Amino acid sequence: MSMKIRLARGGSKKRPFYSIVATDSRNPRDGRFLEKLGTYNPLVAKDSEERVKMNMERVKHWLGLGAQPTDRIARMLEAAGVMPKKVRSNPKAAVPGKRMTELAAKKAARSAAPAAAEEAASE
Q1: 3-state secondary structure 61-111
Q2: pTM of the model
Q3: How far apart (Å, rounded) are the C-alpha atoms in residues 89 and 5?
């Protein structure tokens, strides 16, 4: 049984509130879980202590049993100092896609054409 520590969504429409839970990875996101480990409220300011509350003793227990945190939970645990910081690199995220590359080339050609015409007229 592969265990996960992940977020289970609660709250109403456009007012998210999450529970941090330990669950079997095959269960649905908001479905059955084994233990509630804390809460996460994304609507609270980032520097507030009310944003993320976790029972670190139980989180460490589940990590010791082999539970895998999701990416978002891993970032929270890194911020809390429970897990070592992981180096993340996504160099393709900064590269524009095919369509934006074409549009940028067209825009550069349009802006270069009037400049060339002005140079020819001044000569």
Answers
A1: HHHHCCCEECHHHHHHHHHHCCCCCCCCCCHHHHCCCHHHHHHHHHHHHHH
A2: 0.70
A3: 23
Q: How far apart are CA 57 and CA 18, in angstroms?
A: 19
Quote the CA–CA distance of 114 and 119 in Å, as a whole number.
9
DSSP-assigned letter for residue 44: S
CATH number of 3-80: 3.30.1320.10
Closest of 8, 62, 60, 63 to residue 32, by C-alpha: 8
Q: For 108-122, how does the pLDDT look when each residue is reduced to its tens digit (9 = 90+)?
A: 888 887 766 666 666
The answer to whether residues 36 and 62 touch, using CB atoms and an 8 Å cutoff, is no
Q: What is the pLDDT of residue 59?
A: 93
> CA-to-CA distance for 102 and 73, rounded, in angstroms?
38
